[in-house]
Design brief:
- By secondary structure, the protein is α/β, with parallel strands linked by helices.
- The protein has a single domain, classed as HybD-like (Rossmann fold, 3-Layer(aba) Sandwich).
- It has six helices and five strands; from the N terminus they run βαβαββαβααα.
- A five-stranded mixed β-sheet has the order 2-1-3-5-4, with helices on one face.
- Helix 1 packs across helix 5.
Length: 173
């Protein structure tokens, strides 16, 4: 089935937002709630050309969030242990290696993007990923750590700088 707003002869998007910000996370898992907090703050800056989505879902469940948009920015958390908590990483989905076998989410974001592209579905040609190094995303019900919380304004500002110029200029200083 072809989604509304999609030219069935190509992957080009004919209707939809210019930019979708897909914020991943779960507010019940401490630092993993970062994406939700970023989405809440971004809502005040979004115009009809910017779609802000927040979801705790992963893998193939993300396909609906990936379709029908020209540009995609994904906000998520990461725990590498290679940098202090609150460190912000910025990279393109093409820079991430495909991991053979199952990921912690079974099918990850990059695998879902690759599948959509291979099927000729209308997804962004490139996704920018903003990931914040966290302290803990496994403890149920914990508050977000202060070091991770302190990264939220910088992530919001990075995304505002990616929004269409007219949207960014509307924001109060």
């Amino acid at each position: 089935m072809i989604s509304p707003g999609v030219d069935s002869r190509s992957r080009s998007v004919t209707v939809g937002p210019d930019l979708r910000v897909l914020c991943l996370g779960n507010i019940l898992l401490g630092d993993d709630g970062l994406g939700c907090a970023v989405a809440d703050q971004l809502q005040q800056f979004a115009s009809q050309d910017v779609d802000i989505c927040c979801t705790p879902e992963s893998g193939l469940h993300l396909l609906d969030c990936l379709l029908g948009v020209r540009r995609l920015v994904v906000v998520d958390t990461v725990q590498t242990g290679n940098a202090p908590p609150g460190t912000i990483y910025k990279f393109h989905d093409s820079e991430l290696p495909m991991v053979p076998g199952g990921s912690p989410h079974y099918v990850g974001l990059c695998e879902a993007l690759a599948l959509a592209r291979n099927l000729g579905l209308p997804v962004a040609d490139e996704a920018i990923i903003l990931a914040v190094e966290i302290v803990d995303c496994l403890t149920l019900g914990e508050e977000m750590s202060s070091t991770v919380r302190s990264a939220i304004p910088a992530v919001v500002e990075m995304i505002r700088n990616m929004m269409p110029a007219a949207v960014s200029e509307q924001a109060p200083q």
